[in-house]
Request: fold
Amino acid sequence: MKFKAIPLLLMAIMSLSSCGSSYSYKDHLEDYVFKLDFHSEYNILQLTDIHWSANTSTSSSMAYLNKLFSEVDSHIKANQGSDAHIDLVELTGDMFMLATPYNVEAFIEYMEIKASQYGFMYASIWGNHDRHGIYNPNWLGAKFASAKHSIYFEPDDDLYGRSNFVINLTNEDEVKWQIANLDSGASFSETAVSPFRDYDYIREDQVDWWVKEHDLAGKQVPTIAYYHIPQDENLKAWESRASRKHKFFKLERFADNGNERYASSFIETGKENNLKAAFMGHAHNVDWTVDYDGVVIGLGVKTGTELYFAHIDVNNDDPILQEGLSSVGISENFDLIGASLVSLHDDDSFDLEHLYFNEREGGDFVAWRSW
Amino acid sequence: MKKLFSKDNFLGSSFDKKQKWQSAVVYILLSIFFVLSSFTFFNFLFSFVDVAGSIVSGSMDVAIRDFLRNLPLLFVFLMTLWSLLLVHAVYINRDEEHLRKSIIKDSICILSFALVNLIYVIVRLAMGEYVSIAEGSPSKLFPLDTLLYSLPFVLFASLCLIYVFKKKEALPYLVPTRGSITTKARFVYCLFMALWLLFALYGFSSGILSFFIYDFAHGHAFYGIATLFCYLLSPAFLIFWELYFHGLKEEKRKEALLPWSIIGLSISLLGLILYFVSLALDLDAPSNAGFGMFPIMFSASVNLAAMLQVSVPFIVSLVALIKALIWRRDCKQRD
Reply:
């Protein structure tokens, strides 16, 4: 009896630690697809690293976001006409960190109000810290999935990450643009006794999944990808920036995995599949954007004043900071917070603008800078 | 094993009916304040780790802003912790004079934290630093809930002080007792117990919360169960140490320490093995399964915090075993 118990115990242990999912993404590609109507000058607002936490004054943060939305809406209307508005909001991760259920409910309630007010849908992507709250991550996923204006999909599948999905922007059933949303994970250890954790990266199965989704939409369809953690190409592009078009600020490291062994093939694969751009977040003091062999990759402008953000001092003689300043042509001190706006066109091109928005007592600081 | 639980081993075996009632009240209060301390510590730590993140990321202004905003969480934790210490001083005391001093000192501390919190919140509200009395985050009613929370502690501390000053003759509850700790060992002992208490408080609240916040699905159940087991061991060992071990008669403690330290070492070793095996089988589990349990680890991208938390039961058992062996050696030398 004693010896029979051991294999049974081992089987029990293995079953508790097995993936156990019978839902293969390869057999359910269409489940990961959302469809929205496309029109020229389709406006996607990227908000990133909002970082609501147990320390956040949600009232103050909402007051900032109210002004931000208002500024973006006014800007769009001024440039595109009074009927234009924000079409889609991409929340590229770290909406929360060390957050409570109250933070989550207040945030989603707020986004629903704004979505109704401004007429947009919003898509949420997992950042490394969204898993990091006093709530079950399944509950958070369920909240996003059930919100009226939220686009979110989290099946119990064999695809890495909690949530990966695409939004096909269609015009009379023709897919004009694809917006890919990927979960770039959180962190991992190489062994059970590693003292430190490395930042995660986009896995091969996720790349395979996206290629299949892109093939389903059409090989000619241009794609913009959104995820949270920068991949190795950001650093490679930075190191070779002298020969590339680049703009905005890089005031800290990208905080990517950094290990060649875990370099993702997403961007390289994307080059062969009409990937036009990839936008991410994660490093708050970076909104640096670069044309990487035809793919624009860049970090969004950190949204709000939670956790940490960069104070730009124009008199600071740091050469990297001065490089950023000269690219944007701003001559007064400001905080590197705001949002990023992408406008998609009919001809497969897009415009990108970074908004630096600071609340100030004597009048808010507003600066729009085009890519 | 039966011998270890024999009624005659315990100080309470000589209690009269009144003392048994008093003991029951003390146990209930210890339980209440331990649970409250555990969850208020968790709340404070959650907030503090975010502040630490701002400091490490170079945003001192954000760190100061957030720390000042959520300072009531620290006051709430401290008033609760000191209430636990006060009741503990009644539970384990040297003599009446020491007990009086402990109650007075701890009551003043509780009163101070509670009153300072009340004043602090009201002043910040008046200055417009809080948008409203219930501006929200971390809870819907923050900071109002901290004000309401402080009131029973003001009452509790006041009643303790009034009672001690009014009772000129002997305080009725004086058992169980413990001899004084020598000056040499006092600092080390107090530091060790303080750290153990903090790890136990954290282990208890995060262990309980993990039932709600941990994703046991998606193949992460083994890691979740192993971690939960380890996290709950710290408070379990502390509770056992306090309620069982300190309830024993002096001479019985020396007899009981060796077998119980071996049992504790075995259980904690099993916990460690389970933890590391479960982690080795599922390295993605910590990242994907819900990390409210590991704020320090996840914020700073270090595994050491979780490793320390799961190692504490092993460390305290080892210390107990060493102490038991030293006692045994001393006994033999005397004989």
Remarks:
- Chain B touches chain A through 63 residues (CB under 8 Å).
- The two ends of chain B are 26 Å apart (CA to CA).
- The CA atoms of residues 34 and 84 of chain B lie 6 Å apart.
